[in-house]
Amino acid sequence: MRLVRLAHRWTGGLIGLLLFVLGLTGTVLVFKDDWLRAVVPHAAEARVSDPELIGAALDRAFSAPDRPRSVILADDRLGVHRLNYEDKTRGAYATQAGQVVARWDSLWARPELWLFDLHHYLLIGDVGKTIAGIAGLAGLGFVITGLILWWPTRRTFVFAVLPKTWKRAGIVKHHRDLGVWSAPMLAVVLTTGAILALPLYEGLAMALSPGKDLKAVMAAPKHEGGALSPDLDWPAMMAEAQGRFPDAELRILSLPTKPGGLISLRMRRAAEWLPNGRTQVWFDPADGRIVGTRDALTLPLGLRVANAQYPIHAAKVGGLAYRLVVAASGVALTLLGSLAVFTFWGNPSGLPRRRRPPARKV
């Protein structure tokens, strides 16, 4: 038990600040779309589902002099399209008719963008993503060891969001009790976050679908695409794709990134949890004809389970109730991380402090 206590204290004290950052940014990002609906023009409008109208907006976007490389289409949460350009730091929001209403040339120009980058990549790219994933695993370890350390003191448990007293003893007790009542939520969020950030995502998919060539399943059709035509009939293309999967939402349209590549359209079928879906339609960029499709509902079990990790982690399923649960877990992680750092560095040894005897009067 002594070794468990030491490991819990020292690792918490060393990476508690990182968990604080992940918890705080994750909590804010749960409500990202709500904030955007309030501050971006037309973002609160209802989603347009007519494929021909969506195609007309794509035609306007791709015929502009500054053509985007991909468009994330409006959904039920956010009523504007997001345009992404070759320079990944640039982007724009456009109405569902294709009119640009906001632009940015840097991630720092939009708070939702740098908060997302901070949460997922710690602002340092793939290295930060790996660090965040390791922190998620460490956080899961804290949940387990914290429950072990709490068990002998279970009769003193009190449900509270904030400490009753801000003295060290009160903070430590609150930390212990907060970790217990938030443990189920934290276990789900930390586990799914670590799976997404680390190679565990691919490992999970392969473990649940042994013997399957998952790369081949997810590969684009073996078709040599022609040069991108400036006269593609985007409304007709979107209508034909919708006809292949009548229950699906059109989600992301991407132009080819290299010669011979294909135009890719991601769709989300009604039974899919992933917000942008994994159902896919590919078009030849020379004439817009469909050259391949993939139905996400027929993917191997491993891929379907792996695809469920992001919506569970980011509260993209379950409605408002689950969003509040995930937000509460973010608040709990924020408090646990910050107060762990405070109490640890205030007394790294964890030993009771000796009181100085009162000075004798001469």
Automatic annotation (TrEMBL):
Keywords annotated in UniProt: Membrane, Transmembrane, Transmembrane helix
Segments passing through the bilayer: 12-31, 131-151, 178-201, 320-346
Native organism: Brevundimonas pondensis
Superkingdom of source: Bacteria
Protein name: PepSY domain-containing protein
